[in-house]
Design goal:
Length: 327
């Protein structure tokens, strides 16, 4: 091309015009506009000899066959070249009939054993698997932040690390039911919606522990009930009705969603509802047995802490009243 005064862009433009067409004007017909495209006859573009003898204009006014400027032959090549991050990529896609988290590790194992990549090539697993993995990481991070936030709020409410930790012990009780529900309803497949359900479940389960713990503190400090087995039984029985009422309200409201497996539009709500209902069952039942037993074992220390907090509160109120009187 250089010997004839041509460059690659000029030759490419001539090929583009001849074989793919170029717009030269517009045609108006019945108030509609159509592009007027100039190109070779389709028979010429499909004939290899005709392509080789295609004449290309030179800057000096002459014409030269395309065959003298390039090697023209039919080769096997991809119909399109896809790029991502300025790199060529070839997509191998498939639909999975089963649990995605179980299929992809098996694909990775077989590819590692049987596929030998040329230098410069590498494999990246994307699509739904990539999106799911990223969503899992984000939800786990946000779920951890939510648990830390719940603990801080409990500490602000009780002013006691031990009482906050005791209420947080209800989270594993809820986790048992949620995991069991996933194993039964989804064959062990944990989806993004299931993880969202676990985060929601932790908040509901913590609420039940708060209701029970605050009532124990009220009985000990406000009503002067001596610490012991009678206190534990009375507090649990008096809080049984509100805890069951709130748990049944949430469970019955989510029951239609949990039973709508396979219905269109319920792909996210159904796994989340299953996890919440399963966790509510175990957390509500075990909360009425495990948390009272733990409070019976460690409650004497809590009584001292609550009395100290109450004395500080009374002292601050007296100081406020005296300051008001001086003013």
């Amino acid at each position: 091309m250089a010997s004839h005064g041509l460059n690659s862009s000029e030759v490419a433009r001539a090929i583009q015009t001849g074989f793919f067409g170029s717009k030269v004007s517009d045609v108006f017909e019945q108030q509609k506009s159509f592009d007027l495209v100039v190109r070779f006859d389709p028979e010429t573009t499909s004939n290899l000899d005709a392509i080789r003898t295609t004449l290309i204009d030179t800057p000096l006014g002459g014409k030269i066959p395309l065959d003298e400027l390039a090697d023209i032959q039919i080769v096997n090549a991809p119909g399109t070249i896809n790029r991502e991050n300025a790199q060529r990529r070839v997509v191998v896609s498939s639909n999975v009939n089963g649990v995605l988290s179980n299929v992809v590790p098996e694909i990775k194992r077989r590819v590692m054993e049987s596929v030998k990549l040329p230098p410069g090539y590498y494999i990246a697993y994307g699509g739904q698997y990539e999106a799911q993995t990223k969503a899992f990481q984000e939800i786990l991070m946000l779920g951890t932040a939510a648990i830390v936030g719940i603990f801080l709020l409990l500490f602000l409410a009780f002013r006691s690390l031990r009482q906050s930790a005791l209420v947080m012990s209800n989270l594993p009780l809820a986790l048992v039911g949620g995991v069991a529900a996933v194993l039964i309803a989804s064959e062990g497949e944990t989806s993004v919606a299931s993880l969202v359900g676990f985060v929601t479940l932790f908040g509901i389960a913590t609420r039940n522990g708060i209701m029970l713990m605050t009532h124990y503190n009220h009985l000990m400090i406000q009503e002067g009930v001596p610490f012991g087995r009678d206190l534990i039984v009375r507090g649990a029985m008096e809080r049984l009705s509100p805890i069951l009422m709130t748990a049944l309200t949430a469970g019955l409201a989510l029951l239609p969603l949990a039973l709508s497996a396979g219905r269109p539009g319920r792909e996210l709500e159904q796994p989340m509802a299953v996890v919440i209902i399963g966790g509510l069952l175990t957390s509500t039942l075990l909360n009425m047995f495990v948390l009272p037993a733990l409070f019976l074992k460690f409650g004497r220390a809590f009584e001292k802490e609550e009395r100290a907090i109450l004395q500080q509160k009374i002292a601050r109120e007296h100081l406020s009243i005296r300051s008001g009187g001086i003013l």
